[in-house]
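Journal club prep — side note

Before the paper discussion, L.F. wants everyone to see what a predicted structure for a comparable chain looks like in token form. Sequence:
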Amino acid sequence: MRRRGKNGNPLKCAIERCFDDVVSLGLCGMHYQREWHQRQNHKTRERFDRSGPCAVEGCDKPQASLGLCRVHYGRQRVYGDPLHVPPSRQRERIIPAEMGPAKLAQVLGVSRQRADQLLQPDKHKARTLVADALRAGRLVKPSRCQRCSAKSENLHAHHWDYHPDAALDVRWLCSKCHGEVHVYLRQIGQRAAYQRA
């Protein structure tokens, strides 16, 4: 609602060289918003000193709000406790080594694919690096299988080693050859014995 003077004409903003109509406190909408935000920021600065590290013991991150870093402040807002560990993080910390992906998925209440990723993080990372390299054009998928030379649109990237440095060292195989390679690797029980011929 525009403020009007005694003569019925709209009042103009009190800021010099601003000719917009007054909205509140003798200021136009834009200048009123600026003034309001400055007051709020000033109140916040007076209440909380943001210099120094997070108030949580052992956390050296800078303060974001209420004396806490962004992570601990977010946990305080969502869970009511800055030290609360979200359930997804708890799942990743406690994984029995002897448990298979199907059983782990059932216990944690996640998909089998996610359970497999938690059990074999190096494998998951290597697959992600290959997918990223394909999208970026750093890795090119051929049109033929590198083992049997059959033409296929659905070639699989077979990793010899899942270490991040060797993640892009892949051999492109059709699904039949890829299955045969893995059957052979399971039969001999070790990757090193497999010849890359």
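L.F.'s comment for the group: Confidence is low (pLDDT under 50) at residues 193-197. Keep this in mind when we get to the figures.
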